[in-house]
Amino acid sequence: MHARCQVLGTSPGFGNSVSHSHRRTRRRWDPNVQRKRYWVPSLGRNVTLTVSARGIKTIDRLGIDEVVRRIRARGENL
Question: Which intervals of the chain form a coiled coil (predicted)?
Answer without folding.
Answer: none
